[in-house]
Amino acid sequence: MPICSRKVFVLSTFLGLVQLKQGASFVIAGAYHVQRSLSPPVLFSTTYEQSAAQQQEEQDEEEQQQPIRRHKLNKKEPLVAVVGRPNVGKSALVNRICNTQSGGAIVADEPGITRDRTYRSAEFLGEKFWLVDTGGLVFDDDANTVFSKEIRQQAMIAMEESSAVIFVVDGQQGFTALDSQIADFLRKELKRIPVLVAVNKCESEKTGAISAADFWQLGLGNPYPVSALHGVGTADLLEEMFQGMIDKKSAVEGFGTKVKKLSQAKSNLKHKGPLPWEDETEYKMRKWGIGDPAQRVIDDYEAAISAFENDVQPEDINVAIIGRPNVGKSSLLNAIFGDTRAIVSDVAGTTRDSIDAMMERPAATEGGVPTIYRFVDTAGIRRKGKVDYGPEFFMVNRALRAIRRADVVLLILDATAGVTEQDRILAQKISDDGRACVIICNKWDAVVDKDSSTYDKSVKYVRSELPQVRWAPILFLSAATGQRVGKVYGLIDDALQAHRRRFPTAILNEVLRDAVLWQPPPARRSGAAAKVYYCNQVSTRPPTIVVFCNDPGLLPDNYRRYLDRKFRESLDGFEATPIRWIFRGRRERDVVRAGGKGKTMNGAPGGGGSGTSFPFPHAD
């Protein structure tokens, strides 16, 4: 066929398919294989469309989904509140007990660092429990105490839901009037749970007991000298706390007895004489390892060992809430949680540490695994040049770490302020880390003069200003009024599914082949041109596609962006997630096998190779 006739045939075929798309449901499975090498790649999207039965099944699953509710902590794991006046070392003690000195609660030598209550898991003597770090309690409000009322409310909530309270005081500063006020409150209000006094900053064993003796006047029992910095005395404190929960029955029955039961089971297993419940006959049978008495001792020992095994916990979906200061991150967290989970104010930088809020969707069927959403509210991230070394430096580090650990990132924008340069920097950070993303435009209720075209214009504006995450869905909501807040869960589920999507290699290569035929790689002036052989998906979270070619250096950035766009247009399922592209060239041994004189690879370049990654250099 002449070249001109072939062009006319391609154009007529393309126009015919377009007319078919406009007139019917556009199913071209059979027509696609006719002259497949000449058909446009964008039409391939129909080969991966879901059947009507699959769509109906997904709709049925959505209808069966249970409503979202707050996640309740395991009753077997009690809650322990850590309270005290400002700057006595509460967060440092929490980091010591939870073994989170690196990446735990922010610690600094200034009052008011911790404001919201933060939950952290801990383990001691085989028993798991939760610690609640609270802000410093101040009962007298004045101009020098910022957010004192809100901090007291957060501490009260923590004490109401706890099974024990650790009252932290400063051993170096000694007894103060504020310590006496807090002790009076704890002694009168908390009678059903144990309250222990931890005298912090008692590193010396000689002077620690003397410093702790001053706090007998609090009337809360024996004060325990501890050191959050070195860990001195923390074991004695926790052992007494466990015993107090057992005595007052504030924890579930059997809590704190795993080590005692195991020790008793070992003793019974090695005991040479008769046990208290055995007679002479049973003792002889156990001695010679026959009958039920011998099996009973073995079963008790195995039961004591199995008690230390961890229960299977459902997987958490980590959702990080990221944005500039004062865009409404904490307000959105409170709207999702349905309560005052984080302190909210008009002052920028109110949130200091990362705050977790657990939400749960019960299983659709009995015996199924529920879906747990862990929302992580982070501190507002300012420009790097404005952040000095200190508490804010560590707050920003916590926020950036939350992005790396998240499954889905909610990028919060201010609908009244528009997109700023800092928003673009955060969007690039999310894309570089390969996290699924949902763009949330908050304060939609504050936008004035809205009409029927405002939404479309706003979407177009956000897309043009944030090309780094052009693939992310956009949701306009109001955390203050609750408008469209319920739609966040659907977008999170879709983003999570796309982030974990895996496509068959055959489908990916069909799309790649059609994309290359529709727009071949550009050639250089010297005549050298890239040859693309095949591709396959090697991993998920995010979807990572390796493209094998003769020389990755011959593929410019604009052509790589073209491949990314064509894959998104042709395949349904890559929304809300970045695609990590890795371009690999021919290996040296493959070149040697081919003769090294321009011979082709005949398709596959082998099982490996070296190359560069785009746009993520660290991915290779």
What's this model, at a glance?
Strand 15, helix 18 (557-570) and strand 16 form a beta-alpha-beta unit. It is built from 19 helices and 17 strands. Helix 17 (505-518) crosses helix 18 (557-570).
What does this molecule look like?
Residues about 1-55, about 60-65 and about 595-620 have low confidence and may be disordered. Strand 12 (about 435-440), helix 15 (about 455-465) and strand 13 form a beta-alpha-beta unit. The chain has 19 helices and 17 strands. The radius of gyration is 32 Å and the shape is globular. Helix 9 (about 260-270) packs antiparallel against helix 11 and helix 10 (about 280-285) crosses helix 11 (about 290-305). The two termini are about 45 Å apart. The longest helix is centred in the first third of the chain and has 21 residues, at about 5-25. A seven-stranded mixed sheet has the order 1-9-10-8-11-12-13, with helices on both faces. Strands 3-4-2-5-6-7 form a six-stranded mixed sheet, sandwiched between helices. The protein has a four-stranded mixed sheet with strand order 14-15-16-17. The chain is of the alpha/beta class and about 625 residues long. It has helices at about 5-25, 30, 50-65, 90-100, 150-160, 175-190, 205-215, 235-250, 260-270, 280-285, 290-305, 330-335, 390-405, 420-430, 455-465, 490-500, 505-520, 555-570, 590-595; strands at about 70, 80-85, 120-125, 125-135, 165-170, 195-200, 225, 315-325, 355-360, 370-375, 410-415, 435-440, 475, 530-540, 545-550, 580-585, 610-615.
